[in-house]
Fold:
Amino acid sequence: MVGANTLRLYLTCIRNTLDAAMCLQNFPCQEVERHNKPEVELKTSPELLLNPVLICRNEAEKCLIETSINSLRISLKVKQADELENILTKKFLRFLSMRAEAFQVLRRKPVQGYDISFLITNYHCEEMQKHKLIDFIVQFMEDIDKEISELKMSVNTRGRLVATEFLKQFI
Amino acid sequence: MACLERASPALKEILLKLYRANKSIEIDHHLYEFGSVEYHIQSSASDEHHMYLSISTPLLSQEVLLPYGISHHTKQMITAICSDVVEIIEPAKEGYQLTLRLDFSKLPSGKDTLKVIAEISAVQAIILSSRLKEMLMNVDSHDTFQGMYKPIKLVYRPSEPFFIVRQPQKFIAVFPIHFKDKPDVIIATTFFQELMDVGSSEKWAKAPPCCWSPIPPPELRGELFEDLSTTGGFVSFEISSWHVKGKKLDKTVWSLLNFYAYVKFHVKSTRSFIQRRMRKRLEGLVELLHKRNIKEVEVEEEEEEQSRKIQGCKCMIRISNLPKPTVLKRRYNAFSRTIKRIRSRIKIQGFGRFRRRWLKMPKFSSSMGYTKLE
Structure:
């Protein structure tokens, strides 16, 4: 119950922050002529960057939101209670990151210290609905947690079934 | 190799083909199987009834080296398949541990034929398991050794040795587990913990007690460092006399020999299961993202269509709300305007005023109406 409450608060906080931060507009690159780059990645012009916001649910789970004039980067650290969850999380998020083109807003490599990162630019905001993008990110976070838990349970269940079958041979 | 199936499928197929052939076939096959197992099958057209099967397989233990590599007990077990059909040729062919002469003319008829052929195809498994069977058969033996029993190292592959430690009234089989990848180690460790949990329950009290530890068990003290350095810990099974009685001996030995293969197969299947699950989830998440944005566009288009429909129907809605006499009056006025338009097709300047004054329809006063008195 407490866990569910803190999760709700955590997600609501992220949603509200994204709602405020996702005000992006087209801004050509100041360094290179006729180029248009996400300023949050370059970080060459401090006047184009906003203060990053770090939202922590606990020591293991946190979300970093970095905003600039034309782009927004969201980095997530997912909770990993034991070694099995650790490898499952790593495998799954790496699997998704390698197929980032299917998601459009997903970054191929997570920011250092985090498990997965999103990069949203003004072009994404023009093609997609802002509030729907935020809904997707929040839903994504919930789904990841759920999927990791389900995977862990499935692996344990499979192990138990296989162990049962192995021991049957002795009886 | 101590794989999960005893009979070699390729060997079985060739033996069946030879048995079913109406006339004698000239055959000289070399079969190579996983685990450095080699078969040589020879059959000549001149000798209709006999064929020769030679087998070369790595032996399980390094301790006992016999001149022909096969113990007397193993030879007895092989001959016991079907003594009429199987005959051991000594010495074996060069490069092989065992050569058998098979006489298919003496095979029993019916279902037993297939059974015998299957057992002949499983001769490699018999050779491999015989050494362990000999050891486990003497579990109740009362030879006493003072102090600790020395572990016997059984090696099939250099990277996968396991130990049999003899103790009073039981044997302990210890398997050092080694995996290269960390995820494999974790999946295997999860499996071993489940194995311990299941084995310790009341329902499985008859199964051999199982134990997993990340450090070498005390029984293996004094063994070589290379044998004791592992990534996946050590799994131990306690085999008592109950587990080796009668037909259970064969099953127990086969399960122990196949333990490594079983674990590796489970780890591999779990990895492929995780991969399938992730792929399915990826499709779901991508669909979710696109659905959210497509659905919004569709809803907007629907709303636009509906608003257009509502504008077209406005007047109809308003008329339907009015009282009937008013509706009739409006219709009459519209009709009379239409008639007038039809009549006065030619438009003359100023004629309209003339028409309104002199050509209008007389109004008849009704009893209900009010006439103002001048």
Residues 55 and 69 of chain A are 21 Å apart (CA to CA). The helical segments of chain A are 2-21, 39-42, 83-98, 122-127, 130-168. The two ends of chain A are 44 Å apart (CA to CA). The mean pLDDT of chain A is 92.
